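It is worth pausing here to work through a concrete case rather than discussing structure prediction in the abstract. The textbook approach is simple: state the sequence, then state the predicted structure, then interpret. We follow exactly that order.
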Amino acid sequence: MLQNTLLKIEHNMSSLKLQPPEKRKLVEILSYYQKNSYLYPGTIQRHTGASLDESYIFLKELEKIGILEKAYEVICPNCNGTLDIYDSLNEIPDSIICNNCDHEFHPFNYALVIFKVINE
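Step two, the predicted structure:
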């Protein structure tokens, strides 16, 4: 991410109750993300100690200021393999067969919210 984007992110960290060292670490981690890469709430949680709820709130704030947008990762309930990532819920098919284990299921129930970088 570009420096001016990282400055915007720093100003939007209020939802994460972090100490300055954790904030700096988070900015450093986010600096490696480029346009069209995916950011998982669990990444924020792991590197900062924030709760998963706080991580989602923070990422939604970045979505509001135009840095990220939601995406949906479909996970097979049988083998836990990632099948695909969709930019919209409307793109998710009604039924899908896992490429890894041939399990057929309704993917809408197994779509995780992740975030896509849209602005460097």
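Step three, interpretation. Residues 3-66 form one domain. The radius of gyration is 16 Å.
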